[in-house]
Design a protein that fits this description.
The chain contains 9 helices and 9 strands. The longest helix has 14 residues. The chain is α/β, with parallel strands linked by helices. It is globular, with a radius of gyration of 17 Å. It has one domain: Alpha/Beta hydrolase fold, catalytic domain (Rossmann fold, 3-Layer(aba) Sandwich). Strands 1, 2, 3, 4, 5, 6, 7, 8 and 9 form a 9-stranded mixed beta sheet that branches. The relative contact order is 0.15. Strand 1 and strand 2 form a beta hairpin.
Length: about 270
């Protein structure tokens, strides 16, 4: 199990594949070996040397007592692992909170970023609105022991687009999905929630100069598409693409092939 110890944190990470360097950054509560992350790592590793780090307060990364957990910390962690492996400037893919971390990485460590793909991510905190309400409701349902299938039904409402619900086979698998053995702890949830509550890259977006592709879904309830529009508007020469499917469309079998094709075409062009 590859790890890197930094002040107050022991980072778990995965390094896959061969070729030019790429980095995949997971979202809130997710980790490098989740059921959604493994296929992403496989797809990227078919063409790139792919680094993925368990963010602080998720997966197998261990946050030591007294350590801070911020978007800045998580961006610095990725830069440190890249430096440890002498990785040059990499193509970066960040999804949801991972997109926010990617923007911070580009701001704080521009020498580590060759290009950016920022998916369904805000540049500022959204925890005082619907996003925070939904995440806190999910936390409360888990804390109160709500049956897993009902929790899964709730997450489907804000993560999936309406047309996905018509696929009965897929929805049956979704509702009956078991608990992740590395599911985020209550403490980890609180730490990452605080991290996304207290950050903003909004003031720095106009300084980002590397090629950037912003990815959005008009069906996204968790991070509404206007926040992706705002990122694309502020980063010079940023491109934007929109996909059906909702907040996690890129993980869904009916949409992910096109998503990967578009990413690889963007990376090949830069």
């Amino acid at each position: 199990m590859p790890t890197l110890t930094r002040p107050n944190v022991t980072l778990h990470y995965e390094l896959d594949g061969a070729g030019p360097p790429a980095v995949y950054i997971t979202g809130f509560g997710s980790h490098t070996n989740s059921v959604t992350s493994k296929p992403v790592r496989r797809a990227l590793a078919a063409h790139y040397t792919t680094l993925a780090v368990d963010n602080r307060s998720s997966g197998q990364t261990v946050v030591h007592e007294g350590a801070s957990v911020t978007i800045e910390d998580m961006a610095d962690d990725i830069a440190a692992v890249m430096e440890h492996h002498q990785m040059g400037a990499a193509h970066i893919l960040g999804i949801s909170m991972g997109g926010s971390i990617a923007l911070m990485l580009a701001h704080r460590h521009p020498d580590k970023v060759r290009s950016l793909v920022v998916c369904v991510a805000p540049a500022v905190s959204l925890t005082d609105g619907r996003t925070g309400f939904l995440l806190n409701t999910l936390r409360d349902m888990r804390d109160r022991g709500v049956p897993r299938d009902l929790v899964n039904r709730f997450t489907a409402v804000y993560l999936l687009a309406e047309d996905v619900f018509r696929d009965e086979g897929f929805m049956q698998v979704w509702v009956n999905a078991p608990q992740d053995p590395l599911e985020q702890t209550a403490e980890g949830f609180a730490q990452q929630f605080d991290a996304i509550s207290g950050y903003s890259t909004d003031a720095y977006l106009s300084d980002i100069r590397m090629p950037t592709l912003v990815v959005s879904s008009p069906d996204d309830m968790l991070v509404p598409p206007r926040y992706q529009d705002a990122i694309a508007d502020k980063i010079p020469n940023a491109e934007i693409k929109r996909y059906p499917g909702g907040h996690i469309f890129m993980f869904l079998p009916m949409y992910n092939q096109q998503f990967y094709e578009d990413i690889f075409a963007f990376w090949a062009a830069h």
